[in-house]
Fold this protein.
Amino acid sequence: MIGKLFLVGLGPGDPGMQTPQATAALSVATDLVGYGPYVDRVPPRPGLVRHVSDNREEISRARHALELAASGRRVTVVSSGDTGVFAMASAVFEAIEHGDTAWRGIDVEVIPGISAMFAVAARVGAPLGHDFCALSLSDNLKPWEVVTRRLRAVADAGFVIALYNPISRARPWQLGAAFALLRDILPPATPVVFATAVSRSDEAVTVVSLADADPARADMRTLVLIGSAATRRIERASAPPWLYTPRSVDAA
Amino acid sequence: MIGKLFLVGLGPGDPGMQTPQATAALSVATDLVGYGPYVDRVPPRPGLVRHVSDNREEISRARHALELAASGRRVTVVSSGDTGVFAMASAVFEAIEHGDTAWRGIDVEVIPGISAMFAVAARVGAPLGHDFCALSLSDNLKPWEVVTRRLRAVADAGFVIALYNPISRARPWQLGAAFALLRDILPPATPVVFATAVSRSDEAVTVVSLADADPARADMRTLVLIGSAATRRIERASAPPWLYTPRSVDAA
């Protein structure tokens, strides 16, 4: 093995959700590689070189990290949430597959983290309590027809749906189109959660119905969670409702 | 609010994957409630009363925890992995919905954990790097027809699939039936991961092809992960292959 590359998920933001394994990987790294806001979450320390890059530069960032590791450095690539879920791990392995064959000899260690959908689910109850899926709504890297086909398939089949990358300045209409599509399949009362900056100081979590779901509630830091027809809403006197998806499914 | 109830996910087993939030909840609890092997993972401490119950007693366990919390105790219900993913959180909210209305006044705090599928994915690369789903293969609480309909839907639509509860003594044939169904949809070379006791001392992780997937490799502690047609396998000279699912999807 040459060099060492840690792919680390930092969790959604609250240090209380960052695992000891992630903290340990950060403590032995010589080089820290990642998107600026994620690198900023790691305290500086003598001997730790920081390599900051912009969003949407995943493959060049991955190659840079692999070059550093291949040169013998101990490199940690940081992502928010879980590095294996719509984050850097896939980009690094893609770079390995298409890159220098020597990179296959790098000691790569992937360290999972708490992905946003689990932090969001925990805030509102247990909406992911039965079968669920995670789907990126971005059509930057896949055709919109694939997104809609997948959405239809999972909504029809009764999965709870976590939508990552629901909206951005360059993709303003897709979330509204997704809600319109889902309204043809799911009951109007199906709960929808908009969760922005979960576990951070400016966290905002709102539960609405699919009928009332307004895409304008979402921004680039929002995860949108859509219940199935089975997802239940427990009303409370002086607090927001709890949501949960029962473990039992009746015959279709 | 009356009483306090923490629903805690301990992660898959390695203490390095247990979050500081989970550790903090355990440190302030007066009562620990859960399935024996999970309660055993929490070190004893003066003042901490342990309430151990058998597997498959989720609802009575949930009611017991709610009664303790409603009486003013600080109760922690522990699950392996993430408590919101095929674990105790859904059972507790189900018990609340159908139980004493006073239980809606309990201060319930859900603390997410690293679910098995993320620990497994991290061991083999980044197979959950694009759209994926989690599906319980158990037909104890849902009709088998619902399981097969869901499997077909997600395999057809290109999701990577994590199968929880793939097999048990009482459900010996379902995993084989699932593989047979998937062989009609996915290419024979589609990677399948069998991961047993991930992150523990007796961990066993094997990557095979769908054509060669033998249900006898799985037991009650196994998570089975099935790639999509897009999932890639990176061969290495002297180590098991890495798997990853690319971030890009070509037109269907």
About this structure: Chain A has a mean pLDDT of 96.
